Amino acid sequence: MATNPPKIKTATSANERLQKVRNTFEKKYGESPLFYACAPGRVNLIGEHIDYCGYSVLPMAIEQNILAAVSVNNSGRIQLANTNPQYKDFTVSCSEDIAIDRDNPKWHYYFLCGVKGIQEKFGIAPLAGMSCVVDGTIPPSSGLSSSSALVCCAGLVTMEANQKSLSKLALAEICAKCERYIGTEGGGMDQSISFLAERGTAKLIEFQPLRATDVKLPDGAVFVISNCCVEMNKAASSHFNIRVVECRIATKMLAQVKGLDSSRLLKLAQVQTELKASLEDMLALVDEVLHPELYSREEICKALGITPEQFSTELLSANTQHVTHFKLHQRAKHVYGEAARVLQFKNVCDSESDKSIRLLGDLMNQSHASCRDLYECSCPELDQLVDICLKSGAVGSRLTGAGWGGCAVSMVPSEKVEFFIQAVREAYYLTDPRRAAMEKQSLFVSKPGGGAVIFLEE
């Protein structure tokens, strides 16, 4: 695997989408782009809401992506435009400190996260002037990582425009950190697969240190993505960060009971490492130590020996200060159970058993049940869609991405794909006019795609 994102010479006239973006760029700015940058979205096959707890995940890049056409100039400004008219133009001065409004998560702030991450990495002042046109084929707020792909694309653009060089690993780590400028406390899966993906294979992504291992998916299995058409913006709600906080508190509670130094532990994986325990041991410990009933702030403060002020400043994030009660048992149980399912999923893929498709389907179904019942990150429409997918011939189906809307991913035997797509279309999309209008970009087969790339004119 090459260490840096590839630079590919291409003729834009031979690529319909590049030509379309180039035409928009020339009309907008009166000049031609210098280069193009592209970063894919992803579908997470299994391993939901555990990357920020320190555990491995198993995604693949999808063919849908964010593409940016870019020129570099001495204007002292970064000009951003989007081919989608619902996303308004934005301009920022290169000499100003880049401000990101996390209370108003508009599309250009995600782009500026990537710009700011590269600027801070290299201490660039001022940044090169840029004109950019962005085009996206990832359905927004669908759980397919459109926002992280935009951050990654912006990081790649800024690196190239300012004549810097970074490895894929370094870019992934920078983009994972800088997306937090907009308030999302993610774990790095989305950015890692966007840079480290390779066509034709899924990846086991491990953290600390970050590394990606090929996972060969079974022959005869096809992955189909279906969007429930309920949008959820992670940065615009506190659902996501509440789960991060609950896992952080559960970490402290488990560490405290086992006599560990809870002040330096923030992730559930760290407790397992410190205890040198198996995931099965950790699941038993959760049942033993954490009660399923809601925890109040007072109960947590008493157990950890901290003040209410410390609780607010050390454990809560900016958009979770209002939360008064927390589910710790359920969240920790999901995380340790899901971490075990990821390892089982990879082992089944590696075994190339003739029962692989059935075994993987079972793991996907268990994952969705855990996301729905323990982590409570599904929604009625997603549950309905998963149920329809299973009745339509999928051997496994689960929500993918943050949840609370967005997409399901289903594993379907290749000979049943045509029937499956038609059945889901009729049972879910054609029953509702709004869904029917969104169907073309909402129901599609996905193959493992490649990672981020820079295109240069031939």
Task: Write a short abstract of this structure.
This protein is an alpha+beta fold. Helices cover 42% and strands 20% of the residues.
Give the helices and strands, then pairings.
Blueprint: E1 7-10, H1 16-29, E2 35-46, E3 58-73, E4 77-82, E5 90-93, H2 107-122, E6 129-136, H3 146-161, H4 168-178, H5 189-196, E7 202-206, E8 211-215, E9 221-227, H6 239-257, H7 268-275, H8 279-289, E10 295-296, H9 297-304, H10 308-315, E11 325-326, H11 329-351, H12 356-373, H13 380-391, E12 396-400, E13 407-413, H14 417-429, H15 433-438, E14 443-446, E15 453-457
Parallel strand pairs: 1-15, 4-6
Antiparallel strand pairs: 2-3, 2-15, 3-6, 4-5, 7-8, 9-13, 9-14, 10-11, 12-13
Helix pairs in contact: 2-3, 2-4, 3-4, 3-5, 4-5, 6-7, 6-11, 8-11, 11-12, 13-14
Element pattern in H and E = EHEEEEHEHHHEEEHHHEHHEHHHEEHHEE
Q: Note the beta-strand portion.
A: 15-25%
| Average pLDDT, all residues | 94
Q: How many extended strands?
A: 15
Main beta sheet strand tally, sense and closure: 7 strands, mixed
Rg result: 22 Å
CATH topology of the domain at 7-216 and 448-457: Ribosomal Protein S5, domain 2
Helices, by number, come to: 15
- CATH class designation of the domain at 7-216 and 448-457: Alpha Beta
GO molecular function: ATP binding; galactokinase activity; N-acetylgalactosamine kinase activity
Domain Galactokinase N-terminal: 24-71
Catalytic activity: N-acetyl-alpha-D-galactosamine + ATP = N-acetyl-alpha-D-galactosamine 1-phosphate + ADP + H(+)
Subunit structure: Monomer.
